[in-house]
Amino acid sequence: MSERTIGVCLLGCGIVGGGVAAILTEQRGLLRQRTGLDFVLRHVVVKDRGDYPPNADQLPMSTDAPAAIDDPASNIVIELIGGTGAAGQFVERALKAGKPVVTANKSLLAARAAELFALARRHNTCIAFEASCGGGIPIIDALIRGLVANRIDALLGIVNGTCNFILTQMTQNGWSYEQAVKEAQRLGFAEANPSLDVSGRDAAQKLAILAGLAFNVRVAESDIHVEGIDTLQAIDIRFARELGYVIKLLAIAQRVPTGDGDRIALRVHPTLVHEHDVLADVGGSFNAISVYGHALGHAMWYGRGAGRTPTASAVVADLVGIALGATPLVFRQMQIFPDTTPPAPVLPFDQLESRYYLRLAAKDEPGVLAGVTAALGRHGISVSAIHQQESDIGQSVPVVITTHLAREGAMRAALAEINALAAVTRPTVSLRIIDQPTEFAGT
Fold it and tell me: What is the pLDDT of residues 55-114, one digit of tens each?
């Protein structure tokens, strides 16, 4: 790597890749002024010529990724292809050549982080991945460096902008789930097939990365309990509002003391958040991540969680960090990356304690509520409040119950009994409730 010029090999020129190319060409002078380095795009690689961007004549386009990576003039490789197939092969190739890699590929990191980080270490290079979680929010750097002196008790937040946009429309405009998805697709917030987002898997992949850094452990995506928003109904959005809550898809990692030492509870699911909680006000495609540390207390990072320019900004920040030598130094020294940490001591999900929102569809007849509360009581679950709503769905009356803290395993057993009652006409909807900061501070 020359003293003044940094050759960049950019793999992928889609939404984010195009944003990176624009920053490196349009802000080249600003970057040179601020860093003393000249960042030069040596190669912009796409799968085939049909993927060339409109301004291809102004960029060093290529369809030969191996040649671009191997070029001695390519000092740093940026991987923005996505997925775990070709992207993984190209990242391996760059690392084996001793070239640093910048990636926004959460899927690849969630699946193969330990392997790839170890490969980078063997070849005396590094991986930078700020853009993999939270778009332009600098949460990765905060966890690696800014909070290094903190014992993290909990990390939770909104990490999927697509789901947050959908839920915002359902909450504020009274739209159905299907209407909100179509609008998200029209505006470009959701893919034609939005299943990765709405199933909660995208958020789980991000949580695997964030929780690993927060708790200094290695987290697999399979360690995380995942529920999406694809079965959420507008009636529950409305009832939650009447109770003073807003439903958000939250990714939550929490330290839980047990008789066998601390365990980490890992989950992604729709959650009732109190309307006065700061997370309730995070709307549209924005993201927000709360962290509780023993020294820091509570802090939150907020910003655009996806999109061309926010994510590209994070990619270029990683590029600069590598070129200036800060990122390689941290990578070599810090024992926080997944190839240097033990597997997470995961709390079995059935041992997790939460408050619950339950919505039953039951026949309007005597003794129904007594049967429901008796089933809850048999499993040690205490009722906080009962709200019976008038209904226009025939003979079934929606009944909303909120509970005090209860174990997941006990709740599932109670729900099996409740759903077996003759008067209950449909499976009971159950959603979890969180109450910040009391639930997470100093756990």
Answer: 888 899 999 999 999 999 999 999 999 999 999 999 999 999 999 999 999 999 999 999
Distance from C-alpha of 127 to C-alpha of 134, rounded to nearest angstrom: 17
What is the reported pTM?
A: 0.93
Q: Is residue 326 part of a domain?
A: no
What confidence tens digit (pLDDT) does each residue in 246-298 have?
999 999 999 999 998 999 999 999 999 999 999 999 999 999 999 999 999 99
- 287 with 409, same domain: the answer is no
For residue 290, give its domain range: 139-305
Asked if 100 and 76 touch (Cβ cutoff 8 Å), the reply is yes
Which band of pLDDT confidence, cut at 50, 70 and 90, is reported for residue 49?
confident
Q: What one-character DSSP code corresponds to residue 348?
A: P
- List the CATH number of the domain containing 36: 3.40.50.720
**Per-chain mean pLDDT for the chain:** 93
Residue 206 is a catalytic residue: yes
E-assigned strands of 63-178?
A: 76-79, 101-103, 127-128, 152-158
Distance CA 181, CA 167 (A): 9
Whole-number Cα distances in Å, 418 to 24, 57, 169, 205, 354:
60, 65, 32, 34, 19
146 & 294 share domain = yes
Task: Point out the catalytic residue in the list 47, 99, 182, 206.
Answer: 206
Q: What is the pLDDT of residue 207?
A: 98
Whether residue 154 is found in the same domain as residue 109: no
CATH number at residue 414: 3.30.70.260
Q: Which two tokens stand for residue 216?
A: 């200094």
**Residue at 241 is within a domain:** yes
Task: Please indicate, yes or no, whether residues 178 and 120 belong to a single structural domain of this protein.
Answer: no
